[in-house]
Amino acid sequence: MNKAEQYLKAGTRENTRKSYRAAVEHFEVTWGGFLPATGDSIVRYLAEYAEFHALSTLKQRLAALAQWHITQGFPDPTKSPQVRQVLKGIRVLHPAQQKQAAPLQLRHLETAVGWLDAEAGRAIESGDHKTLMRCRRDAALLLIGFWRGFRSDELARLQVEHTQAEAGSRITFYLPYTKGDRQHQGTTFHTPALKRLCPVNAYIDWITVAGLAAGPVFRKIDRWGNLGSDGLNPSSTIELLRTILERAGVPADTYSSHSLRRGFASWAAANGWDIKSLMSYVGWRDMKSALKYVDGSTSFGGLAVEPVVTLSGES
Asked: How confident is the model over 279-305, as pLDDT tens digits?
């Protein structure tokens, strides 16, 4: 691979490349389409799968086909008026409510972290280093994921050398790119130390017990207590989160990795954060994205049947 090819490859994320390859293969092999395609063939392809796939899936496949045509020097058939019209028809005839992860409730976060701290205390007394490491990692994952509003892939890409934590003050994270950072300019995130459920202390406790000086912040711990060298797979975050919550006695069926992000957004909205401050803190570029994560019921505050739990004296 020459240098030009290396830079072209680096310009597209690996997950995107994989999904695009799969989409083009589906059009050619599974459906039997021909490339370069015509607007008419794209319309027939969409009509074939409109009843079986979500509109978002169909749009992702269109994006892959569009990229293939552009990179090969052909006109993009996905932009034809017929394709736009059939997408509109699919939206009308097959409306679907967007599924969203339930926001992690602050009381559930507190229960889980309290259980992890108790387990860590018992592990210290018994000299069980493996359990101690797992508890410290899981607590840091929950608290950083919640208070920073990170996505699962962002948690997986955090690096020790790009993280600075000062006890009693704040923690700073740097990510070379995020979903909203299309130009890969890099983003720095700050989170203050808190009086309780503190992400700063949780991070320091974790890297201290794990002896981490560089590399991924969050890693696998095998059954023998060996710490992996690679970061956690983002897709494993859902299972890990649910396992932590279930072991702590918290109902976890409705929670996913996005529950941490939605949980913080709902907590912030309930505690008086305006939408611009929330967008700036979490890193949303448009209001539509931000509003997807905010639980509208929080606007009822103390009149709700179950009042929202807040952290007194914290911001």
From this structure: 888 877 777 766 666 655 545 444 445
For residue 307, say if its preceding peptide bond is cis, omega within 30 degrees of 0.
no
Of 164, 177, 274, 137, nearest in space to 145 by CA: 137
Q: What share of the chain is helix, strand, coil (3-state, %, to 5)?
A: 55, 10, 35
pTM (2 d.p.) = 0.71
Of 258, 208, 179, give the one whose Cα is nearest residue 16: 179
- Amino acid in the structure at residue 123: A
pLDDT digits (tens, 9 = 90+) for 269-280: 888 888 888 888
- Residues 234-282 have pLDDT tens digits of 888 888 999 999 999 998 888 887 889 889 988 988 888 888 888 888 8
**Can you give the residue ranges of every domain in the chain?**
3-93, 106-303
Class of domain 3-93: mainly alpha
Give the C-alpha separation, 30 to 22, whole Å.
10
The reply to whether 3-93 and 106-303 are identical in fold is no
- Under a CB-based contact definition with an 8 Å cutoff, are residues 241 and 256 in contact? yes
Dig out the tokens for 55 from the structure.
């509109």
CA distances (Å), 183 to each of 6, 10, 139, 178, 180, in order? 17, 12, 32, 9, 9
Which 3-state string (H, E, C) describes 32-45? Answer: CCCCCCCHHHHHHH
**Which architecture does CATH list for 106-303?**
Orthogonal Bundle (1.10)
The Cα–Cα gap between 160 and 271 comes to: 31
